[in-house]
Design a protein that fits this description.
Strand 10 and strand 11 form a beta hairpin. This protein has an eleven-stranded mixed sheet with strand order 2-1-11-10-9-3-8-7-4-6-5. It has two domains: 198 residues, 3-Layer(aba) Sandwich (Rossmann fold); 197 residues, no CATH class. It is of the alpha/beta class and 463 residues long. Helix 5 runs antiparallel to helix 6, helix 5 runs parallel beside helix 11 and helix 8 packs antiparallel against helix 10. It contains 18 helices and eleven strands. The structure holds adenosine-5'-triphosphate and magnesium ion. The site of adenosine-5'-triphosphate has 18 residues, from helix 3. This is ATP/GTP-binding protein.
Length: 463
């Protein structure tokens, strides 16, 4: 029997047919996500619209958890498409699978591949910030340049941290900072690369020597800079290959409607390069955001909002100590940067696997601070743990844990979908959760089918 047709109407019309209409209470601001599981009402939402227009949340950030394969990335892809339609720029700064490259391409955006032999990022390049500073000029331009300097310094320090496995010393940071200033003065009209920095430290000009307190003694200078010199050499010819040694292969286009930095060709075992590429992509991408806002402040460009996605969060978190701090800084700043973000991971246990207590606390802070928490199917123990952070009722816990059960034993070759695929519970503050069902369109299925490698190949037809 066919399912009865469903009609929608305003309460002005429908009350003629059924006078006892009541509002369903589901939010209708933002990207259409799916239907309420119990009432069938349309549910819309995304962290940016709920922060700016609906004011349901005080922080434009989304944290999504759930077992693998239940449709988390697919739902965030839908948010990307919806937000792009409103003029927001999606930025996927480090796509690990890739889950978003096809969507960004379909939106007319820019996809930049980074990896060994595929494409590199010059971490000394101030990128869009440098260009914007020149266009703006004056006091505002100078302060943007200073910010760009800080960003480059942080990025080189982060790379050194990754190859060393521990943070840089304070005095090395000041040597590095002076060296970067000198380098900019010496290479007017072109962007310096890491080998230039290495040569400068090797040469040891007077102004650089002064910061090391060498008192005219070359041996003292060498003692002070040798560890840094060695680490920088390790950057150019070590675990990171030559990915950061030459000019950026493709710069982020500040006018692109969407940007995806695809790092999927870096092998999963290559954790150092993954972390380094991800940090470089964030640094570059967030620099582009800062440049865009500075241009808008100066009245030189229209104001644009951005939406960043950090999928597979557990991978960068585990790849290097210090990464949690970076993500932490990003999330704390995103409101002032005009930036919404979505973080996706499997379970809260991903935070527990981190090395230090401080890192674990910071990673849990991501969930605590997220304006919007979305759960796909999770086992009961996980939901109880999550309930301590976001406040979940017994019914909500039972509902979401039922979505984590496996599909039935299908017979006769009929594919049984996992019961939780496309089911999500949206939690905001202490409000009751909104359970939704997401039905994907064929276009979405084609854009994001992570099971393609499980589809039997059709035999090649010979001619
Ligand atoms: N609502 C849906 N209805 C039907 N199929 C879906 C739905 N959402 C996703 N899928 C399909 O399920 C598969 C897995 O989806 P997706 O990659 O989004 O899951 P995920 O939760 O991100 O998994 P992982 O944790 O492994 O990244 C994809 O092939 C996708 O096309
Ligand atoms: Mg995914």
């Amino acid at each position: 029997m066919d399912a009865p047709t469903m009609w929608r109407a305003t309460t002005v019309q429908a009350c003629g047919l059924w006078p006892f209409a009541a509002g369903s209470g589901s939010p209708l601001t933002g990207v259409p996500l799916g239907q309420h599981l119990f009432t069938g009402a349309t549910v819309c939402g995304d962290p940016l619209s709920w922060f700016t227009r609906a004011r349901y949340i005080s922080n434009p950030s989304l944290f999504m958890l759930g077992m693998p394969g239940l449709g988390k990335s697919t739902l965030v892809n839908r948010m990307l498409i919806g937000l792009a339609a409103t003029g927001t720029v999606p930025l996927v700064l480090g796509d690990l699978k890739p889950d978003y490259a096809d969507t960004v391409r379909a939106l007319g955006g820019q996809v930049i591949a980074v990896g060994r032999g595929v494409g590199g990022i010059n971490v000394l390049d101030p990128g869009a910030m440098g260009e914007a500073a020149l266009r703006i000029g004056g006091e505002a331009g100078r302060s943007l340049l200073a910010e760009a300097h800080g960003r480059v310094l942080n990025m080189v320090a982060a790379l050194v941290t990754i190859v060393r496995g521990r943070p840089m010393d304070d005095h090395e940071q000041s040597v590095l900072s002076t060296a970067l200033h000198l380098l900019r003065e010496r290479t007017p009209g072109r962007v310096a690369v890491l080998p230039d920095l290495l040569a400068l430290i090797g040469e040891g000009p007077d102004r650089l020597r002064a910061v090391t307190l060498d008192r005219g003694d070359t041996a003292r200078y060498r003692d002070a800079v040798d560890p840094l010199h060695r680490s920088l050499m390790g950057l150019l010819d070590g675990p990171l290959g030559s990915t950061f040694a030459s000019a950026t292969s493709t710069r982020i286009d500040p006018g692109a409607p969407a940007v995806c930095v695809d790092i999927s060709r870096i092998g999963e075992a290559d954790t150092q390069l993954t972390a380094a590429a991800m940090l470089a992509a964030w640094s570059d991408g967030l620099g582009t955001v800062a440049a865009s806002h500075a241009l808008a402040d100066a009245g030189l460009a229209p104001r644009r909002w951005f939406f960043t996605v950090l999928d597979e969060l557990w991978r960068p978190l585990r790849s290097a100590t210090g990464i949690v701090d970076r993500i932490d800084a990003l999330t704390r700043l995103n409101r002032s940067l005009g930036l919404g973000d979505a973080k996706i991971t499997h379970t809260l246990k991903d935070a527990e696997a981190l090395g230090s207590d401080a890192d674990r606390a910071k990673a849990r802070g991501f969930v605590e601070r997220a304006g919007m928490v979305v759960c796909a199917g999770l086992p009961r123990t996980e939901m109880e743990e999550l309930g301590k952070i976001v406040g979940l009722s017994e019914r909500e816990i039972s509902l979401v844990s039922s979505w984590s059960s496996p599909p039935g034993w299908a017979t006769g070759g009929v594919h049984d979908e996992p019961p939780g695929r496309g089911r999500f519970l949206i939690k905001v503050g202490g409000r009751p959760g909104i359970p939704i069902r997401v039905a994907i369109t064929d276009a979405e299925r084609d854009l994001h089918n992570t099971n393609t490698r499980w589809t039997p190949s059709t035999p090649a037809t010979g001619t």
